[in-house]
Structures
1.
Amino acid sequence: MQSYVQIENASMVFDTKKGKFTALTDIDLHVDQGEFIALIGHSGCGKSTLLNLVAGLLDATDGVLLLANKEIKGPGPERGVVFQNHSLLPWLTAFENVYLAVEKVFGGSETKAQLKARTSAALELVGLTHAAAKLPGEISGGMKQRVGIARALAMEPKVLLMDEPFGALDALTRAHLQDELLKIVAATKSTVIMVTHDVDEAVLLSDRIVMMTNGPAATIGEILTVDLPRPRDRLQLAHDPKYHDLRSQVLEFLYSRQMRPKEAA
Amino acid sequence: MSAVNATPENLGEILSGTDIARVPSVAPKRRTPYFETASGKRLIESTVNLFKNAIPPLLGIVLFVALWALVANSGKSIPGPSETWAAAVELFSDPFYDNGPNDKGIGWNILNSLYRVGIGFGAAAAVGIPLGFMIGRFDFLSRMLSPIISILRPVSPLAWLPIGLLVLQKAEPASIWVIFISSIWPMVLNTAAGVQRIPQDYLNVARVLNLSEFKVFSKILFPAVLPYVLTGVRLAIGVAWLVIVAAEMLTGGVGIGFWVWDEWNNLNVAHIIIAIFVVGIVGLLLEQALMLLAKRFSYD
C-alpha cells in the first residue's frame, strides 16, 4: 500500500557563515492517511526543520518528499501549518485571520456567504465563536493558538502540520487544547504531523512517535507505535500500565541513549 | 519586634506606642465626611495627580519666562515677555489682513508656509514611500541605491536651493523643491527598514497560504510596515518645517520665514520672537497630530 506522505532519503544542509551545517541526514518516513505522527527529540535535533521540509518552507538538499504521490515543491494550502507562536496577523480579527485562509482556498468556487459559513464553522470547532470579532492582542495565548488551529483546519488540508503548537502555553491550557485536538482529529480524520518536546503529549495524541537523534546530522533514531485504543482519555490512561510502559520507552530513548548534549559553556 | 528594628522612620510610632495600643475604641456615631467617602477620595487623588503632573512643565515655563525677562531687562535690545505679549495680541487680533504682497497678516504667512510644506512634503511622500517599499523588498535595488542615498542624505537642505533655482527658474517651486529633497530621506529609509524587519512568521503565513502578491501587500506588507512609515513621515514633517523658514528667508514671498526676515529689516524684534513661538507651536502640533495617527495603527 502506498503511503500518503513519503519522505525518501531526505537531508538538509544549511549554508552558514561558518560553512556548511548538516541539520538532517538520511530521513526515511512513511505516513499513512489519517495517521497522527509525533516528532520528538531534544532541541536542535532538526524536528522543526523536518516539519518545514514537509510544509515546503524549506527545500531538501537531497532526497525526495511526496504527498499523495506528488512531489512537494514549496508551500501549499493542502498542507495546513499551525505555527509555534500562532503567527496571527495582529491587525486582523480572529474571524478575518481565518477568513484570509478560507478565501484563498475556496474563494474560486464558493460564494461569500459560504466562505463566511466555513470560517464561522472553523471557529466554532475550536470553541471561539464568541471571540470572532476580537483582535489577537485582545485574547489569551491559548485562544490565539486555537485561532491558529482553526485557520489551518478551515483550509481542509490533506495534512495538518503542527510545530510545537502548545509549547508556549501553561500546563492546564495545554491539556485542554490537547483534548480538543483529539476530538477534532477524530471527527475530521486528519493526517497530522506534530513536533513536540513533551513526552506525555506525544503518547497521548499520536499513533506513532518518531524519535530523533541529536544534531548535527540528526536522523530518525527509532519509531515507536502507540497502540493505545481510541478514543483516549487522559485520566484513564494515567492508570494504564501500557501508557506508562510507552512513556518510559520514549524517556529511555531521550535521556539514556540520546543524552542531552552538554551546553557549550 | 519594632523595638528591635528601630529606624528614624518608625521611631515616632514606637515612642507613641501606636503599634501596640491598637485597642478598638468606641467611636461616637457621625456622618462620614465627604472627603472620606470613596468618591471624595478619588476626587482628592485625581486633583493631587493633576497638580503633580502639571507642576513640572508649569515650573519650566515660569522659569523660562523669568529668565527671558531677566535677559531682556539687562540688555534692553531684546523685548521682554510683557512687551512681546502685547505685540502678539495686536498681531493675532487681525491675522488675515492683506495690504499688498509685502504686508499680510500672520495667518496668511503661516498658511503660505504650510502650503509649501504640504506640496513639497506630499510629493516626497508620494515618491519616497513607494521607493522605500521597493528598496526593502528587493535586495539588489537596496545595494544599488545605498551609496547614493548615503552621500545625498547628510547634505544640508539649503545646498539644494541653487540647483532648484537654476532648474526651476522661480523662487516658489525652488523652495518646494528644497522641502521635497530634505524630507524624502527619512521616509525612504524608515519604510525600507520596516519592510526588511517584517517578522518571518508573517511571511511564512503568506507562503503557506499561497497568497497573491496583491493580498500579500494589502494584508501583510502594508499593515506591518505602516508604523515604520508613520515614523518616517513624522521625522520628515519635522525636517520640512525646520527647513521652510530658512528656505523662505532666501527666496522671499509670503511665508513665515520671509516674514521673520522682513521684521528683522524693520527691526521689529518682538515680532521675530513671536515668529519663533509660532514656528515652534505649529511644529509641535504637526508632530502631535502624526503621533495620534501612529497610535491608531499600532498593534503592540
2.
Amino acid sequence: MLVELGHYALILALLLAAAQAFFGLAGPALQRERWLAAVPSAACGQFVFVALAVGVLVHAFVTNDFSVRYVAENSNSALPLFYRVTALWGAHEGSMLLWILVLTLWTMALVARSRYLPPAFAARALGVLGVISFCFLLFTLATSNPFARLIPAAPDGNDLNPLLQDPAFAVHPPILYMGYVGFSVSFALACAAMIEGRRDQLWAHWMRPWTVMAWAFLACGIALGSWWAYYELGWGGFWFWDPVENASFMPWLIGTALIHSLAVTDKRGLFKSWTLLLAVTAFSLSLIGTFLVRSGVLVSVHSFAADPSRGIFILILLVVMIGGALGLYAWRAPLMKSAAGFDFISRESFLLFNNILLTIAAAVVFGGTLAPMIADTLGLGTLSVGPPYFNPSFLVPILPMLSLVALGMHARWRRGGLGEARRPVLLALGAALIMGLALSLGVYAHPLTLTPIGATVGLWIILAALIDPIQRLRRRQRLPASVAGMSIAHIGLGVFVLGITFVQSNTIERDIALKPGQSAQLGAYQFRYEGGQDIEGPNYEGFRGKVTITRNGAPVSVLYPEKRRYLVQGTVQTTAAIAPGLNRDLLAALGEDVGAGAWSLRLQYRPLIRCVWIGALIMAIGGVTAVIGRRQRGLAPQDERLALNAGAARLHGEGGAR
Amino acid sequence: MNRFLLPLAGFVLLLVVLLVGLKRAPDKSILPSPLIGKPVPQFTLPNLFDDTKPVSSESLKGRWLLVNVWGTWCVECRAEHQVLLQIKQQARVPILGIDWKDQNEDAMAWLAQLGNPYERVATDRDGRVAIDWGVYGAPESFLISPAGTVVYKHIGAMTEQVWQSEFLPRVNAPAGTAAPPASPLSAAGASGRGA
C-alpha cells in the first residue's frame, strides 16, 4: 500500500512540474501576474512529493520488502542496514529518483533566493527547471518505475552489487549529482535571459554563485569517485578515461570555462553570447552523460542495465531540452552585442585563452569518448580509445592553459600588461623553476621529460596565487572573499598539477608471485608476504593476506589485502590494502592463488597521489569560499532589489521600443 | 549563414551519431564466453532427485542440451521459469538444471510449486562448478552440442525471443557448420513479439 502511495506521489510531482513549467513560462509571456505566484508553490509541492516518494522507497529497502522488484534486485536481508539505505541509488531506477530529488533541491534553493531576482525572470528560470523536471519524471514513470511490484514476492533479494557496498558509495553519487544537476540552474538562468532577450549583463551576475557551487560539488564528486575507484577496485589507478568518468569530467571542464567567462561578462559586459553558450553546454553535457550511461551505447564499468527503449526516450528528451535551448540561442544570441574592447595582453584576453583551451580540452575528451561509436557507425570496425590517446592529447591544450594561469591571474582588466604584479609574478616563476628542478631531479629521480615542466608550472601557480593575499596582508588591507576564493582555488589547481606530475612519472608497480616469507623491493621499500588466512564476513567469504613493509629495515606498515567472494551473486572482488601518506601511498592487492601457499600480488609505490584529491578538494573549497563571502559582502537585499528593479524597468522600456 | 546556428547544427549531427549508436548498441547478453567452441568443463555433481545417480559432464553428450544455471534465491530465474517450461513442452531440446548455491529443500519446493522444466537437476552447493563454467550470476544458459561442446551462452533470463532467435537456429543448422547468429533486426521480426 505504502509503495503504491510512493508511486502516486511521483505522479503528483509530475503534474506539479507541468504546472511549474506552464505558469513559469506562460505567466510572464502573457503578463498574468497571478500565474507567477503559482510557480514557487508548485515547485515546493513538487519537492514535497518527490521527497515522499524517495522516503517510501527507502522504507521498502529498510523493511526488506521484496515484493518491490527494485528492492528484490538490489538488496538482500543479509545486507547491513546502512547499505540497504544506500542501495536506493544502486541501480538505474533509484538513481533516477535521486537525480530528480537533487533537481528539486536545487529548485528549492532557487525559490529561496528568487526574492533577489526580478519576479518575471525568476518565474521563467523556475519554468525552465520545471520543464527539465517534467521530462525526467516522465522518463522515470514511463520507462523506469522504481515502485514496480514483483508478484509473487521473492523470498529474498539479489543483493547489492558488491562494488557498491562501500561507505564512499553513500556519498559519491549524491555529491556528483549535486554538481551535474546543479548546472541545471545556470542553464535555466541562461534560458530565462535568452527568452527575455536581455541586453544587460545582470544575468551573469546572478548566474555566478550558482555555477561556482555546482562546479565545486562536481569537483568533490569526481575526486571522491576517483579515490573510491583507487582503493575499491584495487587497480591502483585513479583515472581511467572510462566513458562515464569522461561524462562527468566534460561538464566540469566546461563549467570551469563558464566560471571564468562569467567573470568577464559580469565585470566588463563582454563574451555575452559565448557565456550563454557555455552555460547551455555545461548542462547539456550532463544530460548527454546521462544518455551515454543509461542507454547502453557505450560499454563501461559504470553502465546501468541496458535498455534501448530507454535510449530512444532519453534521446527525445535531449532534443526537447538541448535542442530547445540551442534553438533559443540561435534566435536570441545575435541580440547580445558586446560594446567594449580590450587589449591583447589583458585579463580579458587571458580568460579568453583559458576558455578556448578548456573548450578544446573538453572537445578532446568528447571526441575520444564518442570515437568508438562513430567508428562503429561508419563501419570502420571496433576501435578502442584509452589512456594512450587521452593522456597525450589532453596535455596539448591543458599544458598551455596551465602555463598561462599565473599570468592571467595578475593581468589587468582592459589595459595591457601585468602592471605592478609583473615583478612578483616573475620572481615566483624563478622560485618555481628552481624548486621544480630540485624536486624533479633531486628528490624524485628518473623523471620523464615532462616532470620538471609539470613541477615548475604547478609551483608557479601556487606561488602566484599567494601574491595577492600576501600583498594585501602586508598593506593591512581586507582580503575580499572573492579574491581569497580565487587564490584558494588556484592553489588547489597547483597542488593537483604537482600530484599528477609526480604520480605519473615516479610510480613503481610490480606484479609478482610470493610464497610466505618471500619479499620484493620497490624503490626504498621492501614488501614481505607473511602468508594469510580464510575469512568470513556477513555476506561474503574470502582470503586475507598479510604484507609487512619496511624501509631500510625500519617497519613502515602492515597491509591486509583481501579477496572476497560474495555469496548471493557469486561475484569475486579484490580489496586492495593501502598504507596512505601525504608524500606517498603503498599498496598491495591479491591476485590469484598460484598454489603451494604462494599468491600473485600487485604491489605499488605511488608518490604524492593524495595531492590529486586534496588539490581537487582545495579547488572546491575555494569556490565555496567565494560564493559564501559574496553573500556577506553583497548589497543588502533591499538595495539589491532596487538595483534590479531599475534594471528591469530599463528592460521593459527597451521591450516596448522594439 | 548565421554563426549562432552552428551549435544547433553540431547538436543535430551529434543526435544522428547517438541515434545510430543506439540502433547498433551491443546486446550485453551476448558477451562472448571463452568456453564457446570448447568441450564442457569436467564435473560430477549430486543429482537433486536421486542421490545414487550423480550428473557428470560425460552424460551431457549425444544430443543437443540446454544447461540452465539457476537458484531459488534468484529473482530473474523466477521470471524465466515459464519460458523454460514452454521449451520443455516443445520437446526439442532437454534442459539440464544446475541449481547453484542453494538448499535442496528450497529447490524441491520451488519445482513443486512452479513446475519442473528440467530433465535432471545437478546441485552445485559451493559454486565450484559454476566458476569453471564462468558463471557471473544466475540465470545463465548454455547450449551444448551432441559432441559435448559449448555452442552458445546467454546471460540473464531466457526469453521466448532469445530462444527463437539465438538457440533454435543453432540447433537446426546442419552439423559442422556454425549457425550464423540472427541479426537483432531479423530476430525482432521472427520472434512474433511473444516474449
